[in-house]
Specification:
heterodimer; A: alpha+beta; Phosphatase 2c, domain 1; 12 strands; B: alpha+beta; Phosphorylase Kinase, domain 1; Transferase(Phosphotransferase), domain 1; 2 domains; 6-stranded antiparallel β-sheet; 3-stranded antiparallel β-sheet; 11 strands
Amino acid sequence: MKFTIHQSSRSGGRPANQDRVAYSYSRNALLLVLADGMGGHHHGEVAAQLAVKMLTGAFQQAASPELPDVVDFLQAEIMKLHDAIHQLTANRGLEETPKTTLVVGILQQDKLYCAHVGDSRLYHFRNGKRLFRTEDHSIVQLMLKQGKLDAKAVTHHPDRHKIYNCLGSELPPSIEISPPRPLQPGDQVLLCSDGLWAQLSDERMLDILNTGLGVAHSVPSLLDAAERLGGPSMDNLSAIGVQWETKPEQALTISTLNMALAQSHTILGLAEPGETSTAETAADLVEEDIERAIAEINAAIKRSKR
Amino acid sequence: MPQTRYQHMHANQNRALPPGYQLQGYEIKKLLSAGGFSFVYIARDLENHTTVAIKEYLPNILALRQEGDQVRVPTNEAAAGFRFGLKCFFEEGRALATIEHKNIVRVLNFFRANDTVYMVMQYERGKSLQEYVLARDTTVPEAMLRSLFSQLLNGLREVHAQKLLHLDIKPANIYIRLDGSPVLLDFGSARMALNEAADKLPPSYTPGFAAPEQYGTRKQLGPWSDVYSIGASMYACLLQAAPQAADQRMKKDFLVPAVKLGKGKYSSNLLQIIDSCMALNHMHRPPSVFALQKSLLKAAPPPASRNWLHKIASLFTQDN
């Protein structure tokens, strides 16, 4: 399995970043997770953080080296996540349950699987064309489907960011799992939060993605473009871009060919430096790992000193 | 031998901690060296009243410390790289912590401070093989070379047994203690064999001593890569300078074979060993560190200067 990947998350004009991104890969499978902690709700970033942590954790356990049943995995783990958010609310005595959107992509055996809850999106592009895009669980999307709105009105509708489906609400989430899609070499998959897609039309996205410079260049460019258009009150914005089986191989291409069967790597996106609230939670991710590594090393030092 | 040849590829432009700085139970005395990924300080262990060497993880291209003592990571991408590097640093610490060998630098403690991590090592008195070679008017005697390197290979075997490659063996990293025994230092370039995460960091190596497979894709790395560096280090003792870099040799090999360069100085047996270690094709190098060690120990020193050599040799055999 070979791919090139880049993820990035920015706070935009907001004091805190409630978006979270992460990816994890084993020898035969790649997981992408993007969660947008809900603005207006307290601790939105707590729910988003839990989402990326739990899903990458579950993936590491299950993908050895591929997921036996991707759809089962998505359904079961996302439900567990919803329950865990409620559990965490009770444990910490929070006044309100934190909420988050979620979009998950899994690339395995040349197929793209996708699950989403809310209005964070997954796009599938090939040869400069959009093949697929998730449908937002938003009020305007629903109205559009019911013929109560036309496509033009949607982009400027005052309620375009209102969603009716998320994780952490009182009702269990409705998890939309899209049928698996065949992947071809050169295909691009993009996950993004509404902060990004609200500013960029599909055409604009395609222009930026098809410069041929690779996702390490195009993903930051997408965020730059959205930020310029979004102005000072810009929402948090995040994206994960993957190019499948990139040819010719670029310096940043990841090949999983030499990975052990039970091995996996997880890369959790970090919030920007200088944001105290989110920087702390982001540092939490590695804190325990660092402490554990240091404890292990000191234990080994003591052991070998005997 | 020009000093610059021995420096790392990326000089560290970060600010070092100042002398007198109190770092947990240690007091910084002075900066010992600055590599691309770390600083090494001489420090005082305030509890045990001993001198230690402390290595501070601070990758030049990923983290910044322009003032004060806190380390700042400039961008998201750098943060990911910083943590990858940190993993490598932990791996180095983990591997070294499990190695208890008199020819391998000893790790004493590992701790966290200033938003980065520190590795405390035993401080060895003596001088580096580089200093030793440069200070001499004549080449290092054969018996000493054989003794030194076969002891060092004992340590290297232990390193490889831990599935670790040193990848930066050179005279500057081989320390000779006051009793004449060698100790292998600076595992800053060490990589766990078969570790993918390690490849995320730009490689660090020293031209002249790095094996050809350390350039480019680095897919062929193995114990044989350290064998090349051992050969190059022995060659440097003969030449009193660093040999031609392997990447240059692959384009046009100007390296004078040791059998030619060292004729009359060392036995042809030793010179052949050096040349075989420095074979560009790793398949032509000694098949294992053990085999190399055996061949170094096998041949007797040339009879002409036996008495004189015997004295020096005895210096290295005592107190082992």
